[in-house]
């Protein structure tokens, strides 16, 4: 047997081993067999293909790329190369690899089915959701196999991400828990949090039922449900139900899921709930949210949000670092430059360095192009806030008045009027309102704000000028209001009052449009009032006879039917005067106690009940003279009275008479047995 025959026999034997190992999913042994075949014959591209598959199954994506760089005899390795780059978190390189095969986006549908599926995943990772959705739609339309449910689920996930941009398609299916979850995420993206909460709870129930039916373990079920609960917690948090959200977030962290992106989202949301409280715990959670492992799986929007929240946390924990971090954030996310400057200005304002904070924002405003008017207004408003914090109202007025035509916006006009009145400059406030009214009159229909949005400003301007003795200016505002509210009679009445102060003829003419007094109350309103029984007691309602309160069929007048004189006389005779209620224990002819409305302890005859357990001890100040003690000894007082009688007519009263008077007064006090408590009685 020649060497070539021996080589072929060995290769056939190795292919047999390779096939056996691949069938048993033993990719390590299959890889060794493939390497032996390639060692014997480099042109054996089937063995090289098997080697790529074994490396991918073992997760050795970097080795796949190295093997392809050395060159192989495999006819087409586009899928293996692009997939390995995708798994190595290099979606841009993977997209370029596939794009090299397809000349343009219009030819993507002509790619092989496996490349189309991979390209859809790459586009999703690149957050090119519009193209991804269209590609999934084409794949589902042209492919029918056992993976249709997975494709529909992926397409609904793309639609959920499109919801934040307002381009999400509707009427997506919701027959599985994944589809229901994605539909809830789409609702949350449109800020319909209540409806999203309802769908998430439905998804949670469907998830448990489906996994239990498939025989999944409780741990696997909890892993899947945790994702749904975190999204539910977010919806609750956005609805202001922070306690419920915090409990769900805490449960998710206790479960210790392996999903780094989910842990990062939970940690960030808990930091938002903590705000400026429990800063030490927030810093630990933010460290988890900003880890490299988590950032690889987060979307660009999520990474930007977490970055800015970390910057806000730095403001509370260590404000001195805000200046250093601001530059890094502005470089990584240029659209966050203004927000970072606001935080730096807040740090300066907290240290009472208002001038430096204003200079910082004014420098940023000078760099902005003129076409970014919305952002310029935000900067100016922030400067006004700082000037008001510094107590410089005049500078705040100057800043607002420098806004050009934007100063005629209702909110700015209100702020300027308030500031002028705060400086006791009523004339300037009046001039501001007058100029705003004139400006909107010149704009007619060209104003950016509709007349309906200006109604409140017109009303405030009219009221202000009427109180300030400027009826002509007030009339102009009321006229503008009447154009949009022609049927508002209250406005018309105010306009008549304003006209009456400077033009009686116009007032007389305008008053003709006011309704007559007879029309202010209609017949239907009278009937409704009479039919209402809320003014009558229940007995009178039951006693009411048919026809006594309504209109009869023969009535010609629009009013209520009038009873005859006999009926009125009979009604008076039946009516009896109700007797007033008398208090219990009341004795006729005896004047009631004038103190009956006072509490017992405030009445003159009240005596506190003696507590027999406490022995009363007469206490006095130390050093009391013996003569003072004898004063209260009645036996001694009586003997002294016998020996020293008082002189009649001298105007004095003997001590015995004082004691007798005191005893008589004591006898006049009511006794305890006269105050026996009676149930329901009032003393």
UniProtKB/TrEMBL annotation:
Keyword terms: Cytoplasm, Endoplasmic reticulum, Repeat, Ribonucleoprotein, Signal recognition particle, TPR repeat
Lineage: superkingdom: Eukaryota
Sequence segments annotated as region (Disordered): 542-588, 606-683
GO biological process, one term: SRP-dependent cotranslational protein targeting to membrane
Keyword Ribonucleoprotein: yes
GO cellular component: endoplasmic reticulum; signal recognition particle, endoplasmic reticulum targeting
Listed Polar residues bias regions: 637-646
Signal recognition particle SRP72 subunit RNA-binding domain sequence ranges: 563-608
Single GO MF annotation: ribosome binding
Basic residues composition-biased segments: 571-582, 669-683
Localisation: Cytoplasm; Endoplasmic reticulum
Pfam families: SRP72, SRP_TPR_like, TPR_14
SUPFAM superfamilies named among the record's database cross-references: TPR-like (SSF48452)
InterPro entries attached to this UniProt entry: Signal_recog_part_SRP72_RNA-bd (IPR013699), SRP72 (IPR026270), SRP72_TPR-like (IPR031545), TPR-like_helical_dom_sf (IPR011990), TPR_rpt (IPR019734)
Function description: Component of the signal recognition particle (SRP) complex, a ribonucleoprotein complex that mediates the cotranslational targeting of secretory and membrane proteins to the endoplasmic reticulum (ER).
Family: Belongs to the SRP72 family.
Name the UniProt record assigns to this protein: Signal recognition particle subunit SRP72
Protein species of origin: Anopheles dirus
